[in-house]
Amino acid sequence: MVRPYAWPVSTMLSEIWRYPVKSMRGHQLTEATVEPWGLAGDRRWMVTDADGSFLTARELPRLLLGVPTPGADNGLRLHADGLGDLVVPAPGADARERTVQIWSSSVRARDAGDDAAAWVAELVGADVRLVWLADPTQRPPNPAFARTDDRVSLADGYPLLVTTEASLEALGGGFSMRRFRPNLVVTGSKAWAEDDWRVVRVGGPGGAVFRAVKGCPRCVMTTRDPDTAEGGREPVTTLARLRRFDGATWFGTNLVPDTPGAVVREGDVVEVLEEVEPGAGPLR
Predict the structure, then answer these.
(1) What PROSITE patterns does the entry give (predicted)?
(2) Which of 79, 163, 215, 273 has a 20 to 30 A CA-CA distance from 10?
C-alpha cells in the first residue's frame, strides 16, 4: 500500500550528472533543468552502427573514454586522450535523417556527418555513426511502468536514474558511483530505501516531482572502469550476492518527471512524498 512519508530534512541531493552522448563520459553539474524526457541535454546523442542500431560501451568499451562537452545550440566538443578535439554542431533540418533503433524503439535522428563518424570510429575501432535526437518527444518508456504521455530521450529505458550514497556504502568494495551512471545522487537516506519510493520531490514545495517507476537491473557496463574502460567482475559479483531478484542484479531506481521545467540544484532537500512498506525489493 502506498503511503505518505515525512522524510528527514537531512536527505539532500548531493550530485547531479548529465551524459550528453549515450555511453560516453558524463559530467557533474551544480544544477539542471528537468525536461519531460530527462535532464536538459542528457543522452540526446548516440552512436550507432551503419544500419542505425544503437551501440553502447557494452559492445564498445572505449566509448567510456570519450569526453563530450555541450556547446552552443545543442552542439558538442568531443575529446579523448590521443585524439584531437572535434567540434560537432547539432545537425540542422537539412541534415540526413535516419531511422535508428534503441532496444525495441525506432526513432528518427539526424546524422552528425562524416567528420564526427570518423572521430568516434577512431576512438572505438569500429565503423560507426553519431546521431542527434532533434525531436525527443518520439519515444515512450515501457508502458508497463509508465503513462501513455511519458517520454524518454536516448537513455536505456526511463528519463532519469536516482541512486543513494547509503546504498553504495552498503554495497561495500569502495566502488565509484560513476560506474552506475546516475543522474541524481541522494545523501542522508537509509540503504536501499529507494526501492520503496513512489513519489519524490527535490527542492521543497514548488520543486521537481518525480514518479519512481522501476528499479534498475545492472549490466556488464558497471564492470568497466569509467576512467580506463578496463573490465572485471565487480560490482556485479557483489550485487548478485546482495541484490539478486528475478535473475537480475539491481542498483538504483528509475524516475519519470511530473514537473517539467523545474530546476534541481545540488544541496536541494529530497522528500519522499509517497512510499510503500519496505522489504519487497525494487519495482520489477
Answers:
(1) MOSC
(2) 215
The confidence score (pLDDT) of residue 39 equals: 98
Residues facing 76 on adjacent strands: 70, 88
Structural domain boundaries of the chain? 12-39+141-275, 45-132
Cα-based torsion angle of the residue sequence 176, 58, 121, 114 in order, rounded to the nearest 10 degrees: -100
- Tell the residue number behind the cell numbers 568499451, with chain if given: 61
CA-based diameter of the chain, in Å? 55
116 Ramachandran zone, left/alpha/beta (phi>0; psi -120 to 50): alpha
Q: What digits encode the pLDDT tens for the residues 162-175?
A: 999 999 999 999 99
Contact 238, 172 (CB under 8 A): yes
- Per-residue pLDDT of 62-96, as tens digits, reads 999 999 999 999 999 999 999 989 999 999 999 99
Residue 131 has a CB neighbour count (10 Å cut-off) of 29
Looking only at the bridges linking them, the beta strands covering 67-70 and 263-265 are: unpaired
Angle at 105 between CA 263 and CA 64, to 5 degrees: 65
CATH code given to domain 12-39+141-275 = 2.40.33.20
DSSP 8-class letter at 208: E
The H-assigned helical ranges of the chain are 114-124, 165-171, 236-242
